[in-house]
Design a protein that fits this description.
Largest sheet: 8 strands, parallel, barrel
Distance between the termini: 56 Å
């Protein structure tokens, strides 16, 4: 049973004992904060920085003054022991997040539960996580897993994860993918009735689970696993070669990356450049807006890994599910339909100018392009281009730097000719394009079928964008999730797409898929 739902000792605290009980809480918070730092460093080394940032966010929550005041107030008012104080306060925060209409905020409830459990375990003196002691060839079956659970997995012994609650974009799912452990989410309470030592087959590729498989099923599964491993080895060996269709048509396969580690993996896997460099990480890890000097220094460190490759840097894309504490944004009922992407940049010109100055200052040293996110109207591109022109004149730059538009809304497709006319290149972000076209949240698991079917629905929109790019003789790439999904590679090429940008790990597989296609 989860420690958050377990009954443990509850007792009254005398007024003269409050200070001592408060110290117990503070000591536990300090210890958990220290453990989170260690966890972050381990994840940073063994997985990547993006996943490690989850635990940096947890550290920041523990230092929140509102939380500390809430714990002290609860203790003084209720006069109960530290364990009960922590559970009560964190449960209220968790319930508040879960009742939000914003899916991103709802997901924060798991973070609060995770921290609450860590602190209570520290107060009770429980030092070890049961997931560290699992036997070989284990499959975890549970209602849910929190980030601290996933990071404690013994990677050698855990073969898979089967959960009732969770989703593709949850923190635990992200960490599980980073650890290379297949995770399946099955919204069926019956999975919790599966007993220990029950044989299970997990097909992460198809999202299927077989309980108590017979010999034939096991045989078929083992054959599939061997075939997959053999194919993976062969595909990786050929990843440095060009991706050409059977009739010799060259398709560029670039990488989506957001940090130095992903850049290195992309180069190792034979990328034709970086089609989408997300710089949000440089902003999300700061409590104040980063300076031009800071951005220049860190961009330079990351870009060194791809010195001879073309890199498309997307300007800061926040708003919606990514908020910055130092940008004053009024609370919106639906932030995905409000101030985000280029809209936010044009309203906060100082942040726009700072990043453009940092990027343009590196143009002579690296092969860089600038991508403007969340375009809906051609005037948005023109306004950014004006700022680019001003900065280039100020810096006396003679080297050209192309400015492109990210097409990820139905409005941008409707205005595509006018947008293409003022753009040097186009990049189609299919994740948001599906979300806005199908009117379905990207993280809403109950609407997953609509999101899946949206990939086929937007093919016509993709053709319209490619046609406009050809009309104005500018490049056009696809950088969303479907670009890295083998079943959509052929439809995308038939739509006229000549450039794909995918996660680094998918590069070898997408290249191999292209080689099997005859257009």
């Amino acid at each position: 049973r989860d420690i958050l739902t377990r009954d443990f000792l509850s007792y009254i605290v005398k007024e003269e004992e409050v200070e001592e009980e408060l110290k117990r809480i503070q000591d536990a918070l300090d210890q958990v904060h220290s453990e989170l730092h260690q966890t972050k460093e381990v994840v940073k080394k063994t997985v990547n920085k993006q996943n490690a940032d989850i635990f940096e966010a947890h550290k920041m929550i523990l230092k929140d003054e509102k939380l500390l005041m809430g714990l002290e107030k609860e203790l003084n008012r209720e006069l109960i022991n530290a364990e009960q104080v922590v559970r009560n306060v964190f449960r209220r925060w968790s319930n508040r997040f879960r009742s939000s209409e914003n899916e991103f905020i709802q997901d924060k409830a798991d973070d609060m539960d995770d921290l609450s459990r860590r602190i209570i375990r520290e107060l009770l003196g429980y030092k070890r996580n049961v997931l560290e002691q699992l036997p070989p060839n284990s499959i975890i079956v549970a209602k849910r897993l929190l980030p601290s659970d996933t990071v404690n997995l013994n990677r050698k012994n855990v073969q898979g994860i089967l959960l009732e609650e969770g989703g593709y974009n949850s923190h635990s799912a992200i960490l599980a993918r980073g650890l290379g452990v297949p995770a399946i989410y099955c919204q069926n309470e019956s999975i919790l009735n599966i007993k220990r030592k029950t044989a299970l087959l997990l097909d992460g590729e198809r999202g299927k689970v077989v309980v108590n498989p017979d010999k034939k099923e096991i045989g078929r599964f083992e054959t599939k696993v061997k075939k997959f491993k053999k194919q993976k080895d062969l595909t990786t060996q050929k990843s440095k070669q060009k991706a050409e269709t059977k009739k010799g048509k060259r398709i560029l396969v670039r990488a989506n990356a957001s940090n130095k580690e992903e850049f290195k993996e992309a180069i190792k896997n034979g990328c034709d450049g970086v089609g989408l460099f997300r710089i949000e990480g440089l902003y999300l890890e700061h409590k104040t807006a980063p300076s031009q000097e800071y951005l220049t220094r860190h961009l330079k460190q990351i870009l060194k890994s791809a010195r001879n490759k073309e890199v498309v840097i997307r300007l800061l894309d926040v708003g919606g599910d990514k908020q910055l504490s130092y940008i004053n944004i009024e609370e919106e009922r639906n932030p995905f339909l409000g101030l985000r992407g280029v809209r936010l940049l044009l309203k906060h010109k100082k942040i726009l100018r700072t990043q453009l100055q940092a990027i343009l200052g590196l143009v002579g040293e690296f092969n860089i392009k600038i991508l403007v996110p969340m375009i809906t109207l051609p005037k948005e591109v023109s306004e950014v281009r004006e700022v680019v022109k001003e900065i280039k004149e100020k810096l006396k730059l003679e080297t050209a730097c192309e400015v492109g538009s990210m097409i990820e809304t139905p409005a941008s497709v409707a205005n595509i000719d006018k947008i293409a006319e003022v753009s040097d290149f186009l990049s189609i972000g299919t994740n948001d394009l599906i979300q806005y076209t199908m009117a379905v949240g990207r993280e809403n698991m109950s609407m997953a079928q609509y999101y899946h079917e949206g990939a086929e629905t937007i093919m016509k929109l993709i053709k319209d964008v490619v046609h406009a790019a050809d009309k104005f003789s500018i490049p056009c790439s696809v950088c969303g999730e479907i670009a890295g999904d083998e079943q959509y590679v052929e439809p995308l090429l038939k739509a006229g797409v000549k450039e794909l940008s995918v996660s680094p790990s998918r590069i070898p597989f997408i290249k191999e898929k292209i080689r099997k296609i005859s257009l």
